[in-house]
Design brief:
mainly alpha
Length: 88
């Protein structure tokens, strides 16, 4: 990571400014984020739904409990984009 290529001004931010920055990054990179999200989560959701067809509550609960696992690739992508690196 090269700090000279950062796409946002690095400074301490208040809570709402940090949220606004995150929303702006998400809006700017919405298509790649959705692509990453669906590539990772859709197969797992479909397989678990097929295996546990009668117990949809547990599929949804398990999917929700694993949200931090699903968010890691998205945060990795956004962190690289913030510093001007393009992931393939």
């Amino acid at each position: 990571m090269d700090l000279e290529k950062v796409t946002a001004k690095i400074r301490p931010r208040k809570h709402w400014e940090a949220i606004d920055l995150g929303i702006a990054l998400t809006q700017k990179h919405a298509k790649p984020l959705y692509f990453i999200w669906f590539i990772i989560t859709l197969p797992i959701y479909l397989i678990s739904s097929a295996v546990f067809y009668e117990q949809a509550f547990w599929v949804i609960l398990g999917f929700w409990l694993l949200l931090p696992l699903w968010e890691r690739p998205l945060l990795h992508f956004l962190s690289r984009e913030l510093f001007g690196e393009t992931l393939s």
